[in-house]
Amino acid sequence: MTTSLMVFHDRLAQSKVNRTLMERAAREADDAVIVRDMYALYPDFAIDVDEEHRVCERCDRLAFLFPFYWYSAPALMKQWEDAVFTPGWAYGGGDALAGKTMLLAVTTGGARDMYTADGKHGATMDALLLPYRITARYLGLEYEDPFIVHGSSKTIDDDALAQVADDFVAWLRA
Question: Which of 28, 86, 116, 154 has the fewest CB atoms inside 10 Å of its own CB, making it the most exposed?
C-alpha cells in the first residue's frame, strides 16, 4: 500500500510540529510513504494538475498534513483541491479516486479542550473537518479518523513532540 503524504504549510521552516512530523515521516515511515512538501513544489500556486493526477493514481492513500488556520487549511491546499479534483477525472463521469483512502493529519494552535461543543470554538474537530469527510465521500474515497495534534503553537514540549512523531509514523504505517 502506498501513501502520498502531502504537506501543506506555508511557513514550514518555522513550524516545530509540522516540520518534525514531515521529517520523521520522510526518515522513518518506509518506502511506501512518499513525502511531498507542497509549498516547495508549488511556491507560485501553479499546480501541475497532470502530475498531481499521476501521483494520486499511483497511490492507495492520500494523506494531507496541515495546520488548521481559521477553521480551514492553508490556501495552497484549497487551491490544490480545486485544481486536482476535476470533473471527468475525480467525479462527474470520472472515478480516479474511488476506493482510495483520505487521511488528514491536522495541527492546531489551541488546546484540545478549545475544540469541544462547549469550548472556545464551540465545535469539535469532527464538526470542523466535516467538509473533508463529505469531499471524500463525494469522490468515493474512504475517510479515516484524522490524526490531530492540539496545542502545537507553543505548548508542546520536546518529549511530547517525540511521542507525537512516533504516533504519527505508526499511524501512517497502519
Answer: 154
